[in-house]
Amino acid sequence: MHDTPKHTNRLIHETSPYLLQHAHNPVDWYPWGEKALELAKREQKPILLSIGYSACHWCHVMERESFENEEIAAIMNELFINIKVDREERPDLDEIYMNAVQVMTRHGGWPMTVFLTPDLKPFYGGTYYPPEDRYGRPGFPKVMHAVAEAFNEKNAQVLEQADQITTQLNQMSNLVDSHERELTEELMTKAFQHYRSQFDAQYGGFGNAPKFPPSMSLPFLLRYWHHSGNAYALEMAELTLQKMARGGIYDQLGGGFHRYSTDERWLVPHFEKMLYDNAQLVVAYFEAYQATQNTFYCDIATETLDYVLREMYDAENGGFYSTQDADSEGVEGKFFVWEPFDVEDIIGEKNAEIFCEYYDITPHGNFEGENILHVQTPPDIFARKLGMDQEELESLLTDGKQKLFAEREKRIKPGLDDKILTSWNGIMIRGMAMGYQLTGKSEYLTACKKSAEFVLTTLSQEDGLLLRTYRAGKSHLNAYLEDYSYFIAGLIALYEASFDPKWLSEAERLAHLMIDQFGDESGDGFFFTGKAHEALIVQSKSAYDGATPAGASMAIHSLLRLAKHLDKPEFHDKAVETLKLYFHQMDVMPSGSGQLLCELAFLLSTPKEIAIIGEKDDAKTDAMFAALHGMYLPNKIVALSEPTEETTLPLLANKPQIDNSATAYVCENYVCQAPTTEVDTFAGMLQ
Predict the structure, then answer these.
(1) pLDDT, greater one: 595 or 331
(2) CA torsion angle 672 674 678 679 (round to 10)
(3) Dihedrals φ, ψ of 531, to 5°?
């Protein structure tokens, strides 16, 4: 028998796992919505807005210490209207109020705790607060009493401060006018020099600890190397990719990357795993494989995709899940760590000695007395050191990893946030599609198709507009710019993997909707929120590429490629005018412009338009695609038509097959070289 919870609040009716985690707090939580906002206005009470996400370790800590504490909850309920938000469901609220906290405190993070006037203007805020004074932070009850007292006793001053902060937030969202600036290679060179100055030449990555995977900076470095021939750009990307994949930030047993590293060596991670990190890193590793032909990168990418299919995918209905927690059994990292005697018991003493040395598993440990598996010496050098054959070593390691993984599966697993977000599914579809192109694994293509169908049916409304989130049979919340732009990018990638033209026509339909719903009718670019959204205190045009690409950056990505596929100059023009808006950002803040810089590289190159006329399962057609996908050609679009197929795609029009054999056309700006049926000739044309 389960005990009936002592408390249940309004969050019980939500679908977000993060909100549901708080449904039995003694806090009188409201979800963000009319009911709570009207109550705050009616009672002229300040709002306590708490924003977090389910994989966030310190969010769990604050819940345990404060939100489950009846005395602290009583203070919250007496003094405030309390609103709980899942940042993954409401990135608009997260962006606005995180900017506010950063303006007020000069730092940010989650859980975010921000106090608002009944008009939703922020006047005080922070991140994690302990239940009493500690860590040099004031206790949460003390903060709440001080905030409520200020709001009630010095109301005019508080409202004035809230107005000033809101004005500042609106000024931050105004972009520096850069219409007259030319988009040139100088911007790319300057960005590269910035990355070079921040680069950690010992461990890879940029800056000091904590270190986050530079998911968009790495593809930019590869593009800069390809564009300029600068070999150091490739070295920077390779060192970072190798150090991450051999570090503790990569799950050496199960595949997939954790959120970030707490040290500069990529050794000790925060253990949560996010769909968006893994989706983007897959692309970076596959591109590095294309650029170098080093199969190590391809192996890491495929291990990561296999992890996603195993643990982050709804195989029955389609759709990729959002995150996995850092904690299991209330302890961060417990699921992932080992002791030497565990390893001996599982794989035998003889093999365990080599295995433990390779993965640095020691009696004193590298994480709170236990061990995170990581690789200090590449296998070829390690095998030489032991006088072993490398194949023999790799066989021993593979066998050991499989046995430890099977044992780990018996442990209590970290929590899974199984909501399905349109935007994150878009970038995972893109990664899976690339996986299919490079490995031919049909399960990757199947997952792409099922997930795209899921979004187009379950996460779409009758009028064709998209929704943001799905869980437990319920789709809701109007989609944001990033949902459209990421998903359109996913559909384009899915077309280029499957060559089913319906994906391209859906991408075109959604691109028109995106421009209509989010385009700035009185200026250039796109807003974060669209016509279907409620008005908030700021309407942002942010294109900051942080942990995920900005919605605007991916809108540029999608429109540049659709313009080529569909011969639609209006899409190209919209992309270029939007990219120009962010000239100043790319110029002064390249580390927050990784995706924008990748799109600049596409624009400044002359992208190749590749059309192949051939049967989909023909050996010659397959050989042409093997040659194509084996090369690093980031700035290209690809289309295929079977000889008997009637096609409306401009790139495929009037291109006959020669001698009943798969025929390749390589074009630039729709001007094509002489077609060829020879794979070697085709490969030469791509160089």
Answers:
(1) 595
(2) -20
(3) -60, -25
What DSSP character marks residue 671?
Answer: E
Q: Which fold has domain 608-686?
A: Glutaredoxin (3.40.30)
Contact 425, 490 (CB under 8 A): yes
Q: What is the mean pLDDT of residues 613-639?
A: 97
DSSP 209-243: SSB---TTHHHHHHHHHHHH--HHHHHHHHHHHHH
Location of each CATH 1.50.10.10 domain in the chain: 186-329+417-604
Task: Provide the CB-side half-sphere exposure for 358 (13 A, CA).
Answer: 26
Instruction: Supply the pLDDT for residue 4.
Output: 86
Amino acid at 314: D
CA gap 442, 465 in Å, rounded: 30
Q: Does domain 186-329+417-604 have CATH number 3.10.450.50?
A: no
pLDDT of 2 = 60
Structure tokens at 353: 């000695």
CB under 8 Å, gap of 24 or more: what pairs does 371-375 form? 371/337, 371/338, 371/339, 371/340, 372/248, 372/267, 372/268, 372/269, 372/333, 372/336, 372/337, 373/248, 373/252, 373/253, 373/338, 374/246, 374/247, 374/248, 374/252, 374/266, 374/267, 375/246, 375/247, 375/252
- The CATH H-level (homologous superfamily) assignment of domain 10-172 is Glutaredoxin (3.40.30.10)
Of the CA atoms within 13 Å of residue 439, those in its CB half-sphere come to 25
The pTM for the full model equals 0.96
Indicate the pLDDT class of residue 135, thresholds 50, 70 and 90. confident
H-run or E-run covering 23: none
Handedness of CA 516, 517, 523, 528 (dihedral sign): negative
| Interatomic CA distance for residues 376 and 382, integer angstroms | 9
Longest dimension (CA), the chain: 87
- CATH 3.40.30.10 range(s) for the chain read 10-172
Sign of CA dihedral 483, 485, 491, 497: negative
pLDDT above 90 (res 175)? no
How, if at all, do strands 81-86 and 29-31 pair? parallel
pLDDT level of residue 610 (50, 70, 90 thresholds)? very high
Average pLDDT for residues 619-631, to the nearest whole number? 98
